[in-house]
Specification:
The complex is a heterodimer of chains A (about 350) and B (about 260). Chain A has about 350 residues and is an alpha+beta fold. Chain B has 2 domains: about 150 residues, NADH:ubiquinone oxidoreductase-like, 20kDa subunit (Rossmann fold, 3-Layer(aba) Sandwich), CATH 3.40.50.700; about 90 residues, no CATH class. In chain B, β3, α3 and β4 form a beta-alpha-beta unit. Chain B is globular. Classes of the chains: A alpha+beta (about 350), B alpha/beta (about 260). At the A-B interface, α9 and β11 of A face α2, α6, α7 and α9 of B.
Chain lengths: ~350, ~260
C-alpha cells in the first residue's frame, strides 16, 4: 500500500472540518503582526501560508501555567480531584513546520528521557500532528543552517505543497492512518506525476533555503568564547525581558510554587514557565545568586542551548526557527552571535545571510 | 494578633487618589473570606470605628507629600509588625510626584494663591524613603489579586511572591504581538510584571506603572525608543511618569538626559 497521497490544498479545510468531532483542533491564525496556534472552530481561519507563530507548540505540552498537584495542608492529604491529563480530548495540530517538529523531538529527550514527565508524555501521546513542509524560507528562520529543515519522524501526516494547489501527503504513523480514514476520498494515492511534483518542490526548497551558518566545531568555539567581550556587549543591549526564552520552542525551564486558598487549607502546586534571564532564576537560600549579573544570564542561555544541550542530549537546543530573533525587543540575533563567534574562533567557512 | 487569634490589619491612605484602597473594597467576591483570615481593625475608608494600633500588618497607600505625613507614617511604622506599601504612589512616588519636577513655590502659588505660608508641602517621596518597608505591591492601581496573595502569604508567614521580571513575560504568554514592533513606545521590557500585561493586551503600550524590573537596563530601552523616533523628552516622560523617584537612582542618572 502506498503511503503517499495527493490532496487539494482547499480540501485540507474539509479534512479539518471532518476531524472536528474527534479532536480539539489548533492551527496557525494571524494576530496583528504575528501568528498564533489558535483553537479552530472555523477551518477557514487557518492560514497555511503563515510565516511563523510567536509562540511555539510547547504551550500544548508544557502549558505556561499548570496545576500539578492539589493538597490539603490541615489534613496533610493529597486531593485527587485534579482531572487526569490522559483524559483530555485528543488534540490535532495543523500546519506544523519542520523546525517545530524538531523542537518537539528535542523536548521528548528532556521530558521523556531519563526522567519521565507524565504530563508532557500524556499530552504527546494524545496529540496528532499534521506537518507542513516549508518550501520557501521564512523571514527570520535559519533551519537549513542547523539542519532542521528536513524531518523524518515526529509527524503523523506531512504535507508538501506541490504545483496545482495540491499537497503531497506523507503518512508517518498509525495516528496518520486514522486521519486518512477520516479524510476518505479527499486523498488519493500519489502517482508518478505526484512523485515528480514532490521532487520539484524539494528541489525548489533546497535551492531557496539559505545556509548562513555552520556548526562545525561549535563545541570548541563555545569553550573558547567564555571570556569573549561579546557577552558584555550583548549585556548592554539585553534587558533580560525573557522574550527569547518564552518564544523559544525548546526552552523548557519552569518554576514551581504552592498557593493556598483563602481558607489556608487547600493548596495548588503549580508550575509556570520561567527563564534563566530572570534575576531570581538562580537565586537560592542565603540569599546567594549563581548569576547575579544580567550579562552572565544572557551568556548562560547561549551556553545552555548550544554547549549544554550538546553535552546532555547530543544535539543543540536551537531549531533555527528564528522566533527569538523576531521577538527580541533589542534586536539581538542568536544567528549573528553564533556566526560571529564561529568566524572568529574556528574560522569555519560561512556565508553571510540566510 | 487580635482577641480572635487573627492577625490585625490597618489600612492607611496618604497622598494619592485612594484608588488602591478602593481596589481592596473591589475584592467584593472574596472580601468576607478575607475577613475570616484577618481582622481589619483600622480602615478609615470603610469603617466608622477604628483602632489606634498596634497592627500585625499595615498596608499603606499614597506618597508622602506633607511634613504631617512624615510624622504619621513613622508612627504607623512603630506600631506595625509588617508594613506593606501598596500602589505606585507609595512604592515609586506615583503621579503626584511629578510635582517634584516643577518649582515648588510656583506650584504653591498656582494652587493656593499668594498667601500660602501655612500650607504644608514638601517634595514628594515614596514611603520607603522615610521608613523601612517590608514589601511593596506596585502598580496603578495595586492589583487586587496580588493583594489577596500577599495577605495569604503573610498570614502563614511566607514571603509574598511579587514579580520582579518584565511585563514581556505576561505579554508573550498571552501571545500579544509586540507593540514595540508596531513602533509604539512600550515600557514592557523594563517594567515589572504582575498586571497580566493588561494594557498591551488591549493594544495600549505599557506605561510602566509597576516600576522598573530588577536590575533595570534603562540604556537599552532608551536606545530602542530613540531608534523608533522618540525624543529625549518623550522618553523621560515615559520613564518617570509613574516612578518619578527613579530620577534619583544612579542607573537613571547614567542616562544623562
Amino acid at each position: 500500500m502506498s503511503s503517499t497521497y495527493i490532496m487539494k490544498r482547499s480540501d485540507l479545510l474539509k479534512l479539518v472540518q471532518a476531524a472536528m468531532d474527534e479532536y480539539d483542533i489548533y492551527g496557525p491564525v494571524q494576530r496583528r503582526t504575528t501568528w498564533v496556534f489558535d483553537k479552530i472552530d472555523d477551518p477557514s481561519r487557518i492560514d497555511m501560508d503563515y510565516d511563523n507563530t510567536m509562540m511555539s507548540l510547547k504551550k500544548f505540552f508544557i502549558p505556561s501555567k499548570e496545576v500539578m498537584m492539589r493538597f490539603n495542608l490541615r489534613e496533610m492529604s493529597i486531593d485527587d480531584s485534579l482531572p487526569d491529563v490522559k483524559a483530555e480530548r485528543p488534540q490535532l495540530l495543523v500546519g506544523v513546520h519542520a523546525c517545530d517538529i524538531h523542537a518537539l523531538l528535542f523536548l521528548d529527550r528532556v521530558f521523556g528521557g531519563k526522567y519521565v514527565d507524565p504530563y508532557y508524555v500524556a499530552r504527546r501521546e494524545n496529540t496528532t500532528i499534521i506537518g507542513l513542509n516549508c518550501i520557501d524560507p521564512c523571514k527570520h528562520g535559519f533551519c537549513k543552517s542547523v539542519n532542521t529543515h528536513i524531518v523524518n519522524e515526529g509527524y503523523d501526516l506531512y504535507l508538501t505543497p506541490i504545483t496545482g494547489d495540491k499537497y503531497y501527503v506523507h503518512v508517518g504513523s498509525p495516528k496518520g492512518d486514522r486521519l486518512l480514514t477520516i479524510a476518505g476520498k479527499l486523498l488519493r494515492e500519489a502517482t508518478d506525476e505526484g512523485h515528480e511534483a514532490f521532487k520539484a518542490s524539494m528541489k525548489h526548497k533546497h535551492e531557496s533555503l539559505p545556509v548562513g551558518l555552520h556548526l562545525d566545531n561549535i563545541n570548541e568555539t563555545f569553550d573558547m568564547a567564555w571570556d569573549d567581550p561579546i557577552w558584555a556587549r550583548l549585556g548592554e543591549e539585553c534587558m533580560n525581558c525573557g522574550s527569547c526564552a518564552l518564544v523559544c520552542p525548546t526552552c523548557y525551564c519552569y518554576d514551581v510554587a504552592d498557593e493556598l486558598d483563602l481558607s489556608l487549607s487547600n493548596a495548588d502546586r503549580t508550575r509556570k514557565w520561567s527563564t534563566c534571564l530572570y534575576h531570581d532564576f538562580a537565586l537560592v537560600a542565603g540569599p546567594h545568586n549563581f548569576r547575579e549579573d544580567p550579562p552572565a544570564r544572557l551568556k548562560y542561555r547561549f551556553y545552555h542551548k548550544i554547549r549544554g544541550a550538546l553535552h546532555d542530549h547530543g544535539i543543540i537546543a536551537c531549531t533555527g526557527c528564528g522566533r527569538c530573533i523576531e521577538h527580541c525587543p533589542a534586536g539581538i540575533s542568536v544567528k549573528d552571535v553564533v556566526y560571529e563567534l564561529q568566524k572568529r574562533r574556528v574560522g569555519v567557512p560561512v556565508v553571510k545571510g540566510g | 494578633m487580635g482577641d480572635n487569634g487573627k492577625p490585625t490589619v490597618g489600612i492607611f491612605g496618604f497622598t494619592g487618589c485612594a484608588g488602591c484602597q478602593l481596589n481592596i473594597l473591589n475584592i467584593e467576591d472574596h472580601l468576607l473570606e478575607l475577613l475570616e483570615l484577618v481582622d481589619i481593625t483600622t480602615w478609615r475608608m470603610a469603617k466608622s470605628e477604628n483602632s489606634k494600633g498596634p497592627w500585625d500588618i499595615a498596608f499603606v497607600e499614597g506618597s508622602i507629600a506633607k511634613q504631617e505625613e512624615v510624622v504619621r507614617i513613622k508612627a504607623i511604622r512603630e506600631n506595625s509588625r509588617i508594613l506593606v506599601a501598596i500602589g505606585a504612589c507609595a512604592t515609586h512616588g506615583g503621579l503626584p510626584a511629578m510635582r517634584n519636577f516643577r518649582d515648588i513655590d510656583e506650584m504653591k502659588r498656582i494652587v493656593y494663591g499668594e498667601k500660602n505660608d501655612h500650607v504644608d508641602v514638601i517634595p514628594i517621596k515614596r514611603v520607603a524613603d522615610y521608613i523601612h518597608v517590608d514589601y511593596e505591591l506596585p502598580g496603578c492601581p495595586m492589583d487586587k489579586d496580588e493583594f489577596i496573595r500577599t495577605v495569604k502569604a503573610l498570614a502563614v508567614g511566607k514571603t509574598p511572591d511579587i514579580p520582579n521580571y518584565s511585563v514581556c513575560y505576561e505579554c508573550k504568554i498571552r501571545e500579544n504581538a509586540c507593540l514595540l514592533k508596531e513602533n509604539k513606545f512600550c515600557m514592557g521590557p523594563v517594567t515589572s510584571a504582575g498586571c497580566g500585561a493588561i494594557c498591551p493586551t488591549y493594544g495600549a503600550p505599557c506605561e510602566g506603572c509597576r516600576g522598573p524590573v530588577a536590575q533595570v537596563n534603562w540604556g537599552a530601552e532608551y536606545k530602542i525608543l530613540k531608534e523608533m523616533g522618540a525624543t529625549d523628552d518623550d522618553i523621560k516622560r515615559r520613564f518617570l511618569k509613574y516612578c518619578p523617584v527613579v530620577a534619583d537612582t544612579p542607573e537613571f542618572k547614567e542616562l544623562n538626559f
